[in-house]
Amino acid sequence: MSFHHFKPYQLPFTYQGYEFYKADGKVCFRREFQRPSRDDLKYNKAFANVRKSNTEFTYIVEISKDFRLALAPLFRISIPYFHSYIQQLFVKLNQFDLKHDLGHKRLDEALKHPEFYKFFREFNFSPNVGSWIEALQSGLRLNPSHGCLELLPKQVNYDFLFEYIRIDFLIGEVIFDFKTHSFTSNFIQRSLAIHDLEGFTFHPQFKTPETPKLHFLVYSVFAVPDYDYTRKRSKQVEPLLHVDLIVL
After folding, report:
1. C-alpha distances in angstroms, 201 versus 110, 155, 175, 222?
2. Surface-to-core class of residue 175, CB atoms within 10 Å of its CB (0-12 exposed, 13-18 middle, 19+ buried)
């Protein structure tokens, strides 16, 4: 049978060493290659590392789901691909487990490595948020002597916030157990008018535990647009959300 006898509804099909398939409404092709069978993936020694990697990734998916659940109160609106960010973070953190081989690495063991905390602190939980959060973060600081989170209104740069009428802070303290996937949390909310920000201090209530538990402060900042101001100027302004985490 010649290539011209194939119809689009017959996709996917192979012809003379090429595989034809449909993606995003377009007919595409690529060189045909021999895919491993289900039995190969499950039993063939050549795919032993693939099986180990899959086992490890399944573990990462499960624990990242529980970790996101600990942060669930923070999300007034969703952050696109947030679940992927957490999975990518945990895949990298899991490599700090130097005690176990591939397929058996665990985050509760990786937590003992000093680089674990450094990597965690530097991770960006909500990228591409823009200058508005930098304007607010200039007034947010962690007081090292008390381990508390403070907002200092006089240090906030208001130039990037003129289109917003209110800032909702949701601040929490979380202890996450990487061994049992359980957590303890405590959250409070503060709503502050953008032109009359009041300072506040969030004091942690829990004692810092030993490994395999991670103790951290987490906060979300939700900027509520001034719709009257923007409507008069025929300008559409969307609410903004930023999430950040501070390891204690």
Report:
1. 32, 15, 19, 18
2. buried
